[in-house]
Structures are given as C-alpha cells and as structure tokens.
Design goal:
With about 150 residues, the protein is mainly alpha-helical. It has one domain. Helices cover about 70% and strands about 0% of the residues. It has six helices and no strands.
Length: about 150
C-alpha cells in the first residue's frame, strides 16, 4: 500500500472492494443500474480503491476504526494527488471516489470525518467546476458559427 497508514494486505483490500461491489454498488438504488466496472476497473487510482474499501469494510462488519482509516487514507491520497498533479482534477475517477467518500462522511457520526470531508469537498468542487468549464469551452469551440443558419 505504499506509505499509507492502513496495515491491511492487498488481499484484504480486494475483499473489501468486492464487498462494496456486491453490497453497495449493486444494491444502492441510485447506483445499481450503473455497471460495477465503472468503479472497479483495473487499473484504478489508489484513492478510488481505498474509497471502495472504506464502504466495503463497513458492510463486512470490520471495526469502525478500519473503515475510518481507509476513508482518511483515501481522502489524504486524493487531496495530495490533486495538489501534486492537477491532471487528476480532470479525472472521472476522482468524482467516483468522492461520491463514495462523501457517502461515507454523510453516514458517519464522527465530527472529524465531517470536518475533513467539508475541507476536501472544496478540492472536488474546484475539479468539477474545471470539468464544466472545459466542456463549455469545448462546446463553444465546436459550435457552428451563429451567422450560418440553414
């Protein structure tokens, strides 16, 4: 896992990702129609893997500290990568990871999770606004001239 603070093995993390896939992604009303591979593709950024593991560990009945550690590690890794490599801000994986991390935070009763989620939310909002601006710019560049009407 690199320099992350979780002491889980890659096999355990894979089990938690699988648990998230079957127990959350395939059953949650807003996500169940989306292909699971949208989240579980390989290769995927480590912050997305840890976000999946955070939800999966909750569903697997792991101690709350384990899922919280996955969550904190995912948020730290995601925000760190955004600060180091701004290209991550244009990544759909970033938005998918944030969907999972925000879901965890909303369901948490831990105020430190709420505070960290609130701060990290600003990073994601900035990334989303950049994606929207890029799409709008792309659309403007590809629009036919306004004086050309059939």
């Amino acid at each position: 896992m690199g320099m992350l603070s979780t002491s889980s093995t890659p096999d355990n993390i894979d089990q938690m990702v699988s648990q998230c896939s079957t127990g959350f992604l395939q059953t949650t009303i807003f996500l169940r129609d989306a292909p699971v591979s949208l989240f579980t593709h390989s290769p995927r950024p480590q912050y997305l893997t840890l976000a999946l593991a955070a939800i999966g560990s909750l569903l697997a009945g792991e101690p709350a500290e384990v899922s919280a550690q996955y969550w904190h590690d995912a948020v730290r890794l995601m925000t760190g990568e955004l600060e180091i490599d701004n290209r991550e801000a244009r990544s759909f994986d970033l938005l998918k990871a944030w969907l999972l991390l925000e879901t965890y935070a909303v369901l948490s009763s831990d105020q430190s999770v709420w505070k960290q989620a609130n701060m990290a939310h600003g990073y994601v909002e900035t990334a989303v606004s950049r994606l929207i601006r890029q799409d709008q710019l792309h659309l403007r560049e590809n629009d036919p001239p306004t004086d050309f009407i059939l």
